């Protein structure tokens, strides 16, 4: 899930709509709301955040350095100003990257993935036997051939790959794919998506790369 912080409602709604088209969950905050939420949010909720986008907001409330105390998710500044002075000021505040508007939503997602790869010293994909799982929105490949998946199943597979070797709970998967604040979807939908995904993987691979333990969650066996 991606968190957008901006005082302008139209900006938050606009980015949320664009992320939704890409199958990426998001949530928008005003700076004061965001500051209160970060201080009180559960660690499991923060782990579901893939990035923070900081737009027009109160710098004293939304501090990248303060965010670092609670989460390692990338922090990207959305800037309306193209001056070098402003860009350097944003980097000095502690952000990981500065994006000047207008910018395509896929470029933002690519930048987020690039930052996370560098932070984790990981490749741009995870390999499980003949299965290659990309982290940039592309469909996975089996022996070099694309394996088209519905966007929710692809996002779940990407999330498992991002946490390869570690077990994640159903709640963590739901929060990452649907967002922490989505009350219109039941959490049990995750089980249905993962069941369909595992069936397709078994048919293509001849084995199930997703290890499931009741009450403990899921783990990609890489």
How many separate domains make up the residues? 2
Query: What is the overall number of helices?
Result: 9
For CATH, the homologous superfamily of the largest domain is named as Response regulator
Strand order of the largest sheet: 2-1-3-4-5
* C-alpha geometry: globular
Distance between the termini: 24 Å
Please, could you describe this protein's structure?
- This protein is α/β, with parallel strands linked by helices and 222 residues long.
- The chain has two domains: 2-120, Response regulator (Rossmann fold), CATH 3.40.50; 125-220, Orthogonal Bundle (Arc Repressor Mutant, subunit A).
- The chain has nine helices and eleven strands.
- It has helices spanning 9-21, 31-40, 43-47, 64-68, 84-92, 105-120, 151-162, 170-178, 189-205, and strands spanning 2-5, 26-29, 51-54, 75-79, 97-100, 125-128, 131-134, 141-142, 145-146, 210-213, 217-220.
- Strands 2-1-3-4-5 form a five-stranded parallel β-sheet, sandwiched between helices. A four-stranded antiparallel β-sheet has the order 6-7-8-9, covered by helices on one side. A two-stranded antiparallel sheet has the order 10-11.
- Strand 10 and strand 11 form a beta hairpin.
- Helix 7 packs across helix 9.
């Amino acid at each position: 899930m991606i968190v957008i912080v901006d005082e302008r409602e139209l900006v938050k709604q606009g980015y949320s709509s664009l992320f939704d088209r890409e199958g990426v969950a998001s949530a928008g905050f005003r700076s004061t709301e965001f500051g209160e939420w970060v201080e009180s949010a559960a660690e499991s909720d923060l782990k579901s955040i893939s990035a923070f986008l900081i737009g027009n907001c109160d710098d004293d409330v939304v501090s990248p350095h303060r965010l670092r105390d609670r989460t390692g998710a990338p922090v990207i500044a959305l800037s309306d100003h193209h001056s070098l002075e402003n860009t350097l000021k944003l980097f000095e505040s502690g952000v990981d990257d500065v994006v000047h508007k207008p910018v395509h939503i896929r470029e933002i997602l690519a930048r987020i993935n690039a930052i996370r790869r560098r932070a984790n010293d990981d490749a741009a994909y995870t390999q499980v036997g003949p299965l290659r799982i990309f982290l940039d929105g592309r469909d996975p490949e089996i022996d070099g051939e694309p394996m088209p998946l519905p966007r929710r199943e692809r996002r779940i597979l990407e999330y498992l790959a991002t946490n390869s070797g570690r077990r994640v709970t159903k709640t963590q998967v739901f929060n990452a794919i649907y967002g922490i604040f989505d009350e219109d979807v039941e959490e049990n939908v995750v089980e249905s998506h993962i069941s369909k995904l595992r069936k397709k993987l078994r048919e293509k691979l001849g084995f199930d790369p997703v290890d499931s333990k009741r009450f403990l969650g899921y783990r990609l066996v890489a």
